[in-house]
Automatic annotation (TrEMBL), chain A:
CDD domains: TM_PBP1_LivH_like (cd06582)
Compartment(s) where it occurs, according to its Swiss-Prot or TrEMBL record: Cell membrane
A Pfam cross-reference name: BPD_transp_2
Main location per the UniProt record: membrane
Protein name (Swiss-Prot/TrEMBL): Branched-chain amino acid ABC transporter permease
Length: 293, 390
């Protein structure tokens, strides 16, 4: 029974990583850049929901407001900080800018919301599921998180493969220049990617803080890094890869804590990552694209 | 091209020289102004005013500010007014050392700080080299007061661990102990190790000791489940309040009903904005200060604090307040004056600290030669959203 319970905890933690990882993977797949500020957009999303709910707004409306705010924020960051550097000589320039934006968002939150942790309201009122005579408890938040993760992955896969804008994204991800020649508006497509990624960040923020109800300006930083790891693990650029990578990461983390040692859980997670990358350098679902000379 | 380079390097050397000379000049004039005919004592403070541990730093700052205001209104120390200046270290050792240097440039003569352990260890090394008097209100790691110049107002980590085991044993809180500690924090690890050593002496059995690190401090379900399965009847939490808030929530979700027992890091739990205080019902903690204590000193402090900052003070505020009064008592005992150098003040205070007895908010305190305080441990239990002294 212990095993099942750990497995469920792992999947539920992993689902949060997975939703965050989707944002990383989409942006990387299309814009070929690591948006290190993604974790901090999550934090802003969580604060917006918290503020809205405290102000007496219906939780569902609050989540929608937060998605709008994050979308606008994500698109603004892209326009102001990333787009001018897209054709810079070194890809490092935009990476460093992303790290800068990450610190900027953290410091703004520090000034606006203060450093003290705030407790996140317990608004997901789904009753816990009790199995095997109360031995196995699956919390409501865990079920909602796992459910949301599956819905988002299915919807995104459909969007990317079946809609015009989605196909445009795929085209841009494969060859920006050729896509432009085919009449695709590359700038608008990249903007759309950031919009979707940031709206996902808002949802991830809500689910992260519902599961672990404490918000600080640094809330997004560490989950952001773990989710980035998950995206690489699953094969960066791949949507199903991000989901599987996230869930595996969560499960490995929890199992490492449970069966090996709670002190070295993170070391175990990253060792597994190194082994996977040694065997399969593009990640579990990554495509091996050969560069033509 | 070559000439241009040479010109450039010459110019750079010139700029550097000017900077060095200017730096020296500034330092010299700063030193002389603080030692010549200065009419006020300058006490510096260092602590996290922003960042994840800001609750502690701000509380210490507020408590200290209140004490300085009272002292100045009552005529100062040895008839001289006191200036107090607090610098932010964001709970980071490197920034703390920078803050220390900033305060030295300001003319600091005594240091009240730092607030948290890891930065304190770094600053203490600097202060020892400078022979600057240091009293930490709340730095609990043993190494915070390694030098002869340093004193401590709160209990050290080993003392907290030992006193916690003593309290649990003597008051029959439980027999089988589960522990969740932060293996990446010297504070948490220090308390845990000494608690584990002392537990045997009180017939307590540590049935599960689970760790987490600062990088994975969100999910505690595994640790809680292992402790629950081990049959613990008390969970000892030598950690800070933000993780504790999450642990209490997750324990409730998995229907783990037990007694949680913590140390001074749990103080602040009830002031987390939006925290459901019913989760903390029955949580016990070792703390030398409770805002609802009935003695005159506490009542006055709580009323003044509320008037100044519209909030109830936590233990760290009381620590900051007491630390300033400890400096005052020692300064009066040693008869120091503001025109003495920081090093002379330190020598005088180190001798007088061991002679004073401070009736403070956190108990009646006297100090040993090694800088450790001697006072009674007290425990509080959270009932109806308030700390109640046991």
């Amino acid at each position: 029974m212990g095993f099942l319970s750990y497995l469920i905890n792992g999947i539920s933690l992993g689902s949060v990583y997975a939703i965050i990882a989707l944002g990383y993977t989409m942006v990387y797949g299309i814009a070929k850049m690591l948006n290190f500020a993604h974790g901090d957009v999550i934090m802003i999303g969580a604060y917006v929901v918290l503020t809205a709910i405290t102000g007496g707004i219906n939780p569902l409306v609050a989540v929608l407001i937060s998605m709008v705010v994050c979308t606008v924020l994500g698109m603004t960051i892209e326009k102001v900080a990333y787009k001018p550097l897209r054709n810079a000589a070194s890809p490092l320039a935009v990476l460093i800018t992303a790290i800068g934006i990450s610190y900027l968002l953290q410091n703004i939150a520090l000034i606006v919301f203060g450093a003290a942790p705030k407790s996140f309201p317990d608004f997901i009122k789904v009753p816990a599921l009790k199995l095997a005579g109360g031995e196995l408890v699956i919390s409501g938040v865990a079920m909602v998180t796992i459910g949301a993760c599956v819905v988002i992955v299915v919807a995104l896969t459909f969007f990317v493969n079946r809609t015009k804008q989605g196909r445009a994204m795929k085209a841009v991800s494969e060859d920006k220049g050729a896509a432009q020649l085919m009449g695709i508006n590359v700038n608008a497509t990249i903007s759309l990617t950031f919009a979707i990624g940031s709206a996902l960040a808002a949802i991830a923020g809500v689910l992260l803080c519902a599961a672990y109800p404490s918000v600080t300006p640094y809330t997004g930083a560490m989950p952001g890094i773990k989710a980035f790891t998950a995206a690489v693990f699953g094969g960066i650029g791949s949507i199903p890869g991000a989901m599987i990578g996230g869930i595996l990461l969560g499960v490995i983390e929890i199992f490492g804590k449970a069966y090996i040692s709670s002190q070295v859980a993170d070391a175990i997670v990253f060792s597994v990552l190194i082994i996977v990358l040694l065997v399969k350098p593009t990640g579990l679902f990554g495509k091996n694209i050969q560069e033509k000379v | 091209m070559k000439n241009k380079k040479r010109l450039l390097s010459a110019a750079l050397v010139a700029v550097m020289l000017v900077a060095v000379v200017a730096g020296c000049g500034k330092k010299d004039s700063g030193d002389s102004s603080s030692s010549e005919g200065s009419e006020t004592f300058k006490i510096g403070g260092i602590g996290p005013l922003t960042g994840p541990a800001a609750v502690y730093g701000i509380a210490v700052q507020n408590g200290a500010d209140l004490a300085v205001k009272e002292i100045n209104e009552a005529g100062g120390i040895n008839g001289k007014q006191v200036e107090f200046k607090m610098e932010d270290d964001t709970h980071d050792a490197e920034k703390a050392v920078n803050a220390y240097n900033t305060l030295k440039d300001w003319g600091m003569q005594m240091l009240m700080g730092t607030v948290t352990s890891d930065p304190c260890i770094a600053v203490e090394a600097e202060a020892e080299a400078d022979n600057m008097f240091l009293i930490t209100p709340s730095g609990t790691a043993v190494d915070c007061i390694k030098g002869g110049n340093a004193f401590r107002l709160c209990f050290s980590d080993p003392t907290q661990g030992i006193k916690a085991a003593e309290y649990i044993g003597e008051h029959g809180v439980g027999k089988k102990i589960g522990v969740i500690y932060d293996s990446s924090s010297s504070y948490s690890k220090g308390i845990y190790e000494n608690f584990a050593k002392e537990a045997d002496n009180h017939d307590l059995e540590v049935v599960a000791a689970e760790a987490f690190t600062a990088d994975s401090n969100k999910d505690f379900t595994v640790q809680l489940k292992k402790i629950k399965d081990a049959g613990a009847d008390v969970v000892f939490l030598p950690i800070y309040y933000d993780e504790t808030a999450l642990i209490l929530k997750q324990a409730k979700d998995m229907e783990f009903d037990t007694t949680f027992f913590g140390c001074d890091g749990l103080d602040g739990l009830l002031s987390v904005e939006g925290f459901d205080t019913s989760l903390a019902e029955g949580v016990m903690l070792l703390t030398p200060f409770a805002a609802n204590a009935e003695d005159e000193l506490t009542k006055k402090f709580v009323a003044d604090f509320d008037a100044a900052y519209s909030q109830t003070p936590i233990q760290f505020a009381a620590d900051g307040y007491d630390a300033i009064y400890a400096i005052k008592a020692a300064a009066e005992e040693g008869g120091i004056t503001p025109d003495m150098s920081a090093s002379d003040i330190c020598d005088a205070l180190v001798t007088s600290m061991t002679k004073i007895e401070l009736k403070g908010l956190t108990g009646t305190i006297s100090w040993a030669d090694d800088g450790e305080p001697d006072k009674e441990p007290k425990a509080a239990i959270i009932e109806g959203g308030e700390y109640v002294m046991k």
